[in-house]
Amino acid sequence: MPQHLYLNAFVMGVGHHEAAWRHPRTDRHRLLDVDHFVELGRIAERGRLDSIFLADILAVGPNIARNTPSVFEPLTLLSAVATHTRHVGLIATASTTYNSPYSLARAFNSLEHISGGRVGWNIVTSAQADEARNFGGPDTPDHSDRYARAEEFVDVVVKLWESWDSDALVLDVEDAVFADPARVHTLDHEGEHFRVRGPLNSPRSPQGRPVLVQAGSSDAGKELAARVAEVVFTAQRSIADARVFYDDLKSRAVRHGRRASDIKILPGIVPYIADTEQRARELEQEFTDLISPDYALRQLSAVFGTDLTGLALDDRLPELPPESEIEGQKSRSTLVRHLATEEDLTVRGLLGRLGGGRGHRSIAGTPEQIADDLIAWADAGGADGFNIMPPYLPGGLEDFVDQVVPILQRRGVFRTDYSAQTLAGNYGIGGHGAGDRSVLGGVATALG
Ligand SMILES: Cc1cc2nc3c(=O)[nH]c(=O)nc-3n(C[C@H](O)[C@H](O)[C@H](O)COP(=O)(O)O)c2cc1C
Fold it and tell me: Candidates 51, 53, 332: which one to mutate for ligand 1, based on the most atoms within 8 Å of Cβ?
């Protein structure tokens, strides 16, 4: 049997490429147009994609003169998309460093009810110093502290989501029973970072709880993912690297008492699609030519936590701190360093390679070449599916959905219609009911 692929559309503004808003294939005025994002959700749904995903950075970014990473808060925006779609999953990023578990659990549960059970939470610890400065800190908390807080944060959120049994809402008019207190539970959580009594002020969601998604590939990130994540986004540049990551994460999950298939691993790709490979490469080059080096150098500085804005574009990267000394984006710093050294890139060459997906792999080719590539990665054991990061939107997503997806469907590796009602159902990770996807075991005391 061919493997079934899972496909997520990672949608960002008018495209993933950092200069997308300047390319004639985009309409920059749609950056703040809710209908643009509704359209993206509908295109993804037309392609029977599992989900769409919004990232979030809690700061304006390193160089507002050129671009900013996020202008919409993801849950708010996905609420609008939810009311205009029926099947596609809706994954929102939210930080465990700069939120509180109760408010976050509540907001996600609301979107669960609004969307009929199609929500996922991309758990991030917020790696950038600019974000810390918006929340009272002079600098980002240490990496290990952020992940320790994230571990407890996720547990509290899941317990809050599971604090109502699925049959707790009674609504019995005759006997005036609104909810059954025996089926609504307090947590009385008292941990190192949080004290939360519970229960949540919102009944159990249609899919039991949102799907847990994780996107940090450091050691601590992989441990968190292995314990709780159901979908993992990751940047991998070669099949060999992807296989190492895949095997590592799946064996860690098994060590946590889970099945390897409980986690779906989706490396990112930035597809440039055209009728010929030559034309696809030219299209990629058009975007590369629009890169502003001053913006790109500040992005690069953020990855290494080091000021690199003075680098000469035709030089090679200088000696940079190793991953063990990076407190921000650990795994991404290693990926970028390897990319520069393995391909012996100049700084200019490196910035060109990072412009489309900040380190995610670009593929320029025909629809057949792209489909072949995705299948090869999955067949080699490097991926359960892919995080599709179109360099320009909506056209890049339309091209993928209309030209690549039909090939994957003809080859029997992608669905031709939805068969599930929930996001967990799309990803084949359990049913709708209470508790059957619990990662934590039962919750505590019943009210009453
Ligand atoms: C596809 C993808 C999307 C991500 N989206 C976000 C995001 O929206 N916000 C964020 O703070 N970090 C995001 N990250 C970054 C990671 O969550 C993490 O902060 C970074 O990779 C460093 O984590 P690490 O130290 O565990 O490697 C994303 C990573 C990937 C691979």
Answer: 332
Q: Is 435 inside a domain boundary? A: no
* pLDDT tens for each residue of 95-112: 999 999 999 999 999 999
pLDDT tens-digit map of 178-221: 999 999 999 999 999 999 999 999 999 999 999 999 997 899 99
Ligand 1 neighbour 51 (Cβ under 6 A): no
In this prediction, residue 444 carries a pLDDT of: 38
Q: Which atom of ligand 1 is nearest the CA belonging to 147?
A: 26
Neighbours of 104 (CB within 10 A): 22
Atom number in ligand 1 closest to CA 131: 11
* 447 within 8 A of 185, measured Cβ to Cβ: yes
Nearest residue (CA) to ligand 1, atom 31: 234
Beta carbon of 269 within 6 Å of any ligand 1 atom: no
Of 311-325, 371-385, 392-406, 419-433, give the lowest mean pLDDT range: 419-433
Q: Decide if 432 is inside a domain.
A: no
Say yes or no: CB of residue 8 within 6 Å of ligand 1. no
Q: Do 221 and 341 belong together in one domain?
A: no
> Are 334 and 420 part of one and the same domain?
no
Q: For residue 2, what are the β-bridge partners?
A: none
Q: Give me Rg for the CA atoms of the chain.
A: 22
253 with 347, same domain: the answer is no
Give the integer Cα–Cα distance in Å for 127 and 38.
29
* Whether the CB of 56 sits within 6 Å of ligand 1: yes
Last residue of a domain, one of 328, 354, 380: 354
**Would residue 341 count as lying in a domain?**
yes
State mean pLDDT over 27-44: 97
The 10 Å Cβ neighbour count of residue 195 is 10
Measured CA to CA in angstroms, residue 2 lies from 28, 242, 364, 379 at distances of: 40, 19, 25, 8
Q: In this model, does residue 29 exceed pLDDT 90?
A: yes
- Per-residue pLDDT of 42-98, as tens digits, reads 999 999 999 999 999 999 988 898 988 788 999 999 999 999 999 999 999 999 999
Statement to judge: residues 350 and 217 lie in one domain:
no
Same domain, residue pair 302 and 388: no
Looking at residue 164, the DSSP 8-state letter turns out to be B
Does 263 score more than 90 pLDDT?
A: yes
Residue 438 counted as domain residue: no
Position 257: which residue type?
G
The pLDDT of residue 438 is 52
Domain that holds residue 313: 292-354
